Amino acid sequence: MSTAPAVTGATFEQEVLRSPLPVVVDFWAAWCVPCRMVAPVLAELADVYAGRLRFVAVDTEAEPELARRYGVVSIPTLYVFHEGELVRTAVGAREKRAYAAELDAALAEIAAG
User: Rounded to a whole number, what is the distance in angstroms from the first to the last CA of the chain?
Assistant: First the structure.
């Protein structure tokens, strides 16, 4: 189970696309073993990147239309959004340092404009 705040189709635009901070969206499902394995890693990263990135979660079972809208075909999938635009994607379970490298790259891309 993801520990990040849940977003839904009804809250996605406000919570993700209009967020003043870049947002990491964790697309997951309760039945997904790799999703459950990375949840604590993502919780740790949320602490590390606090103030620079916001972490939220989309339960693909509860929000299949939202997953479809963003082309999620495999979980876990992490998307990084900034100012309404998708800037980075990471598909599949990864180690903490691999996720951190993706997040650092996303922040660098955002900073470069």
Answer: 34
Buried b (16+ CB within 10 A) or exposed e, 44-76: ebbeebeeebbbbbbbbeebeebbeebebeebb
Per residue in 72-91, pLDDT (tens digit) is 999 999 999 999 999 999 99
Query: How far is residue 112's CA from residue 54's CA, in Å, rounded to a whole number?
Result: 19
Catalytic site positions: 32, 35
Could you tell me the fold of the domain covering 12-112?
Answer: Glutaredoxin (3.40.30)
pLDDT digits (tens, 9 = 90+) for 26-77: 999 999 999 999 999 999 999 999 999 999 999 999 999 999 999 999 999 9
Per DSSP, the three-state class of 95 is coil
So where are the chain's domains? 12-112
Phi and psi at residue 42, in whole multiples of 5°?
-65, -35
